[in-house]
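User: Show me an example of a complex going from sequences to structure tokens.

Assistant: Sure. Here are the input components:
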Amino acid sequence: MGALKVGADGDAEAPAGKHALSAHIQKCFPGGFELAAELEAAAGITILFGRSGSGKTTILSCVAGLLAPDAGRIAVGSRVLFDREQRLDVPVVRRNVGYVFQDLALFPHLTAEQNVAYGLGRLAARERRRQAQAMLEQFRIAHLAGRKPAELSGGERQRVALARSLVIEPQVLLLDEPLAALDLPTQSQLFADLRRWNREHQIPILYVTHSQREVFALGERVVVLDAGKVLAQGTPQQVLRAPLQETVAQLAGFENIFDARVIALHPAHGTMTCRLEGSSVELEVPLAKAVAGEAARIAVNAGDILLAVECPRGLSARNVLAGRLVGLEQEGITVHARIDCGVVFQVKLTPTARESLALAVGREVWLVIKTYSCHLLEPEPG
Amino acid sequence: MSWQALALSVKLAVIVSAVLFVVGMPIAYWIASSRWRWKFLVEAVVALPLVLPPTVLGFYLLVAMGPRSPLGRLWLRAFGHTLSFTFEGLVVASLLYSLPFAVQPFAAAFRSVDRQLVNASATLGVSRLRTFARVIVPLSYAGIITGLVLSFAHTLGEFGVVLMVGGNIPGVTRTVSIDIYDQVQSLNYAVANQTALVLLAISFITLSVVYAVNRKVWVL
Amino acid sequence: MKNVRLGSLFLLVLLLAKSAPAGEITVAAASDLTFALTEIAHGYEQKSGNRVKLAFGSSGNFFAQIQNGATFDVFFSADVEYPRKLAASGLAAAPTLWVYGTGRIVLWAPADSPLDLGKLGMKALLDPSVQKIAIANPAHAPYGRAAVAALQSFKLYDQVRDKLVLGENISQAAQFVASGNAQLGILALSLAVAPTLKGKGAYWEIPTDSYPPLEQAAVIPTAATDKSLARAFLDYVRTPEAQAILRQSGFQPPPEKP
């Protein structure tokens, strides 16, 4: 099993642009929700990341042709699927866009093999069977060919759904939270299958999720969506590890976000000192374009903070804060600790660390935070 | 015991059910999938025979079939006689009268098919017509069978409309329901009872067989 | 004290006297009496202050209903057999049976028919343009039986048999012809002269010797709710005014009572 590998593991960067998906979508909904998103997805896996209701599924529906945008343009390479100005709207059945729905939508009255072969109606019966069988084998479910969806496990059904969409050789693949209901081992296996297929075929794949883990495990690029707008695009590292916007920081799980005021700038060192509002805690953060006295928002990832039970010395880190342990909770393989240093910091530890340090509520501890672990967030618009 | 009348009724019911299957499915599909804002008017029209007294419907059909109405004249010109008092006239009348009994169960079944399945079929490149045949219909068997059975049963027992446009011609429009009525009117209660019993037995057996078969279909 | 008691008793009697019913009877009548009886009943209501509820339909139907307990006060049948049967089985008082008239059958053609009934008479039935002939169902309607008898008498029955369409009652037969679905019909004279059909077509009286007389009788069923009122109404129907209306409506006077 093991922990999921982080980052695209050395996959060669695919030549972008040739059959890249480009989507400019604008759509207003009666409830007031407005989607205005622009994104480019080259061959490979592009993650659409965001909260529920941020518009991710809407984007998929528009690309697939199930929903028509009010304005915009959707194209795969040079093939235009939708263009409001040109009044072009290729019907769903001709778009050749594979879509694995969140609830899979497998045909309950057909066997696994019949499901996979469903989109191959144009071919002769023998060819149809051959291709379906080959695809089933690729996803290691050939032995389940004769079973109906009701007789398959979650992971097996997921694979049938994938196989069904891929056998038609789509130009774009859309996946809506495909791994949400699966357990970890099954998820890892499916990751592996998907990436193997991706290496061989290299088409743009839009993968919708709200799980950070999946972003790092699968994504070569990630597009962050919130309230119908694209907040950031880039590699997972760029976007989620060093978020520029607060919303992204929140989405990326930066548990510690504070109001602060710039006290002093140290251009020669490349840092500046900020005091966290409502306390006397001061942090050294990377230098930014700011003036003393200005307000700022600082985000620190809970996993980036070190905990010590003795006051540490001789460290490279600039920020060493004394505090008291006020909360300790274990959730699976993560221990969430809360330390009051004047403001309350959230820190993530392993259970081993907790044991070996004999941590208990009330204990006096020290927090160590590197300058580069402090991220200055852009002021929120409006 | 008029076997002729019974056979006529069964023949009428079978033909009407078959035609309603062919005609009712597209109507039901349209009702289930269309987003036209005036669709409710069509649904109301389809449902009208449910609330119209059969004699009222029958009366207006009689007028419509007569040589004074444009439709009647058309038919007269084409076939040399009007639709009234013919078996074909009964078929037409029964089609109208049993329409909602077929269309409504069909439409309800189609509507209950998960929209996502239809979407999935579209993304896999399958046309709407073939999606209808390969996904919607197989998942609607129960509703389709219900519609067929209801239209069969309803036509078999039909009285009011047949009375109005049939003319009670033996072997042509004297259905078993008219026949039983005649026997009662003529005070031949014994014969009436006999015929009614046979009709009841046949109907019951037919319905039982269909529902028994329908049971299997549920095991998907 | 006594005065109060007397007073209230007096009031009670007064009240009862006031609400002493304008009587009401329900009359079942064959459909061919629709216009005649409606007029007659109206006249009676004016004169007596009582109310008459009329139900028109097929005599056979009413017969069956009375057999099964229907509480009509008077039954005007389109024949004499049904009332006779009721009296025989004790469901009606035999002495109350009264033949109120005899009906006639006529050959009727709608106004747009090319056939000259006056010239052709029964032969019109053989005209090639006649595809359907409407009559009342002979199985249970007296006028239907009379129609069949007349056809047989004229030796036309076998030739026109396939063209016959049967109406549930004489009114429906009229409906078939009036709407043009049947080209000719053998209807009751009373219907032919009724306001609704008058002017919509032409009729030819079929000779009375070709069918047995359509004696039509009324009777008071034993289950009647108000027999005295029923008798009162029947008496009114015997009056000259009422008889005149019957005459006008195509009913011939009843044969001389033996």
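The lines above are the inputs; the final block is the predicted structure for all three components together. Residues 264 and 273 of chain A are 5 Å apart (CA to CA).
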